[in-house]
Amino acid sequence: MKKFIEKLHFITHDIHQHSHIEQAQIACSAGAKWIQYRCFTKNDDELLIDINAIAEICDDWGATLIVTDHVHLNGKADIQGFHIEDFDANFIKLREQLGEAVTIGGSATTLEGLIRLANEGADYAGFGPFYTTITKPNNAPLLGVKGYQNAMKELKSLNIDLPVLAVGGVTVSDIDPLMNTGIFGIAASAAINQADDMRTAYLSFYDKIM
């Protein structure tokens, strides 16, 4: 089942300036149509308080709500999909568990990872890191624009049609060269939610991508 995937994914994060709920509200009021709730510091009851509140916001603004991991919460809130950060997750089994209607995205740091996600039926892939990021630090090599160019060229040669989003330290000035590589879109967090004016920052990304 082909899913609708937005070109700009906004990812909430644990920050002092705004709660996850506030981040979702500000982003949606600025036009966001895709909110990825990413939180690993709360128990299930606390997660569901956040998720239910954000689901209402997304419903009001017509946005898709994706939850990072926490697939055990499927069916307990109005969640449209899940983003799985485990590079070794079995997406075939996840699809069997979650069903065809649920959007499932995955993370990849290599071309081989992208190919595996496509072959196992992921609906989209977050591919990175583009640059140094404080949101989700890891030891994977930085891709840079050249890394995306090479990966998209290889995917095209293999006739793989997978929406690939650049993630990891992307700023507004990076958007044009990244989009010119043939990627589908951008996922952003810190560049938006830690800006002095989060709404203005979101709109800057939105105007460039959309």
TrEMBL record:
Q: Keyword Secreted on this protein?
A: no
InterPro entries per the UniProt record, alphabetical: Aldolase_TIM, ThiamineP_synth_sf, ThiamineP_synth_TenI
Q: Which Pfam families match?
A: TMP-TENI
Q: Name one GO molecular function term.
A: thiamine-phosphate diphosphorylase activity
Which GO cellular component terms, listed alphabetically, does the Swiss-Prot or TrEMBL entry include?
A: cytoplasm
Q: In which pathway does it act?
A: Cofactor biosynthesis; thiamine diphosphate biosynthesis
UniProt keyword list: Thiamine biosynthesis
BP-aspect Gene Ontology terms: thiamine biosynthetic process
Highest taxon of the lineage: Bacteria
Q: Where is the Thiamine phosphate synthase/TenI domain?
A: 9-192
Q: PANTHER family from the entry?
A: THIAMINE-PHOSPHATE PYROPHOSPHORYLASE, THIAMINE-PHOSPHATE SYNTHASE
Q: What is this protein called?
A: Thiamine-phosphate diphosphorylase
Please tell me the species this chain comes from: Pedobacter nyackensis
